[in-house]
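Appendix B, Record 12. Input sequence as logged:
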Amino acid sequence: MKKSEIAAVVVSVLKEVQSMSGREWTSLHGYSTPIGTLDGFDSLAGMEATALIEEKLRAATGLDSLGDESIFSADNEALRLDQICEKILAALPGGA
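Logged structural output:
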């Protein structure tokens, strides 16, 4: 799976989470951080989004899990969309 395909899945899920929670959507690009950019997107929303991303990627790639750590932050720093995609790519069967 290509990084651009992963980005499309991530953005689709983020739009879904924002919609389900009744929050506004703000367009993201590679250097955007969902945490801090998206209205009300917090750690709980991040866990929900991670579960949905895992579900979508499991069917497409055989992904087992993205692990217990947040894919939206690392070392108390919000990750950019491109960093999130790299993190997911590394977790896919066969790695990055």
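DSSP finds four helices and two strands in the chain.
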